[in-house]
Amino acid sequence: MACAGCGTGAEGKPAGCKDNGGCSSGGCNRLNVFDWLANIPLSDSLAPFDIIEVTFNNGSRKDFFRNVTRQLFEKGEMIAVEGVSGFDVGTVSLTGELVKLQMKKRRVEDTPEVKKVLRRATTDDLQRMNDNKSREKDALIRSRAIARNLGLEMKLAEVEIQADGRKATFFYTADDRVDFRELIKVYAGEFRAKVEMRQIGARQEAGKVGGIGSCGRELCCSTWLSDFKSVNTTAARYQNLSINQAKLSGQCGRLKCCLNYELDTYLDALKGFPDDADSIETANGVATLQKRDIFKCLMWYSYSGSNKQYPLTISRAKEISQLNKQGIKPDDLKAVEIVTTSSKVKETDLGFADVVGQISLKSLEKTSQKRKQKDRDRQKQGGEQKSASKQEQRSANKGEGRPDKAPQKGGRPEQKGARPEQKGPRPEQKGPRPEQKPRQENRLPQKQQGQQHGQAPGNKPRQDQQRRPPRNKPRNNNNNNNNSNPPA
User: Fold this and answer.
1) Pairwise CA distance, residues 112 & 128, whole Å
2) Where is the PSP1 C-terminal domain (predicted)?
3) Which residues pair with residue 195 across a beta bridge?
4) 120: closest CA among 168, 164, 70?
5) Alpha-helix residue ranges (DSSP H) falling in 401-439
6) How confident is the model over 222-246, as pLDDT tens digits?
7) Is residue 288 a contact partner of residue 279, using CB atoms and an 8 Å limit?
8) Which of 390, 488, 406 is nearest to 441 (CA)?
9) Is pLDDT of 264 > 60?
10) In b/e form, how buried is each residue of 218-252, taking b as 16+ CB within 10 angstroms?
11) pLDDT classification of 21: cutoffs 50, 70, 90
12) Between helices 181-191 and 136-149, what is the axis angle to 10°?
């Protein structure tokens, strides 16, 4: 079965990668092997090897099956093979002569007990396999709950159900021995299948779960690493790494597998260093070896009671060791002067200057300043327009004789030449106009008071309109009588 990135085309072949499953995308080819003998023609007298390698569960498990159907299967095809009391569906991962080497590597013998290939997987086989695979997540959750209720000290990592649903394999990790005889009975009644319990290590569990390592890449055990070798702290000491358990441990809680990747290179480089120069004697005392630098071919020594370290070349360390064997103590170690990177830059003109943190963004600053200046100019123009419109309105109000205080009771007469858009009486204004500031109550000239309380100049008053009396004067019905004569 192809990975999610490739998809599955006709007859179970990957549709996207065109490499029959070897798309190097991670999970689908973790246990695959490149068949470099696939295109080599065989003579007529030699028959092709009749055992093929089949991968199950998206590359997490593989097994060998004998091809008794005499059909030619290509890499990436889905086939049905013998299972436990039924059949199982897997993907062809390797065919031909290279299968012999894989069987020898995995210590599998070519015996008659090797299971057989039944047929190419049909549509019904694939549909049945997908239905049973969709049950695995729910089965894992349910199986963990059952194990917790029984009080067993174990951790279930994965559940694999056979394509026909007649067998379920439970992968678990445990520190001590677990008595799961009662657990198997409960599982068999719960899942209606034959139960197989298989214990795995912490590294295999991390490979099944997956994750991102401290290097920023996907875990090696979940992508390409298939066999796990023992790792100890000696590998870290050979590589001059600090013995820090937190940094040297992976997500599985064990030492990282990558500690073994460069170990052979370090061992080959350390062959040129002397083995009998762990401690050397000089006139100043005994110097003890602290570390070896295989990249610079230096050996670092320090005197007892001193924290200062002296780098020596390999030839100088061998020379002092030979002198000590003859009973001679040299006056000085003649340590090598280490030139730092900063001093190299000062002495050598590299032709460029380090301008990190010195680059100014004046172009962006000018753009922002121009934008701000445009906004200010726009605001000034808007303010000038508002002030001009307010001044025009004020002058228009003065010329038209518009009342500033209270409106007339009888309504405002129509003004023919003032504002043509207002035909009816103007509604009362309770306060000042929003664009005009409220005017203070000042004493107006008599002429303006007459204009204010009367009609606007140029307009004749109506006959039925009465003139309002001036302010601050008592209202009398008869204007000709005196104050001494009271009203009737």
Assistant:
1) 29
2) 115-200
3) 168
4) 70
5) none
6) 888 877 888 999 999 888 888 888 8
7) yes
8) 406
9) yes
10) ebbbbbebeebeebeeebbebeeeeeeeeebebbb
11) very low
12) 140
pLDDT value of residue 301: 92
The answer to whether the CB of 60 falls within 8 A of the CB of 39 is no
115-152 per-position pLDDT tens digit: 999 999 999 999 999 999 999 999 999 999 999 999 99
Q: Which of 5, 95, 32, 7 is nearest to 223 (CA)?
A: 32
Domains plus CATH for the chain? Answer: 10-130 (no CATH), 135-208 (3.30.300.20), 273-343 (2.30.30)
pLDDT score recorded for residue 38: 64
Contact, 93 vs 79, CB < 8 A?
A: no
How many other CB atoms are there within 10 angstroms of residue 186's CB atom?
16
User: How far is the C-alpha of 323 from the C-alpha of 318, rounded, in Å?
Assistant: 9
3-class DSSP string for 371-389: HHHHHHHHHHHHHHHHHHH
Helix (H, G, I), strand (E, B) or coil at 101: helix
Q: What is the pLDDT of residue 174?
A: 92
Could you list the beta-strand ranges (E) of 101-141.
117-120
Which pLDDT tens digit goes with each residue over 386-412?
A: 788 777 877 777 665 544 444 444 445
Pick the more confident residue, 460 or 80.
Answer: 80
Interval 352-358 mean pLDDT: 63
CA 192 to chain centre: 41
H-helix or E-strand spanning residue 321:
helix 314-325
**SS3 sequence of 21-79:** CCCCCCHHHCCCCCCCCCCCCCCCCCCCCCEEEEEECCCCEEEEEECCCCCCCCCCCEE
CB distance 255 to 246 below 8 Å: no
Phi then psi for residue 358, to 5 deg, are -110, 0
Instruction: Give the predicted TM-score (pTM) of the model.
Output: 0.54
How far from each other are the two terminal CA atoms of the chain, in whole angstroms? 120
C-alpha 21: how far from chain center: 28
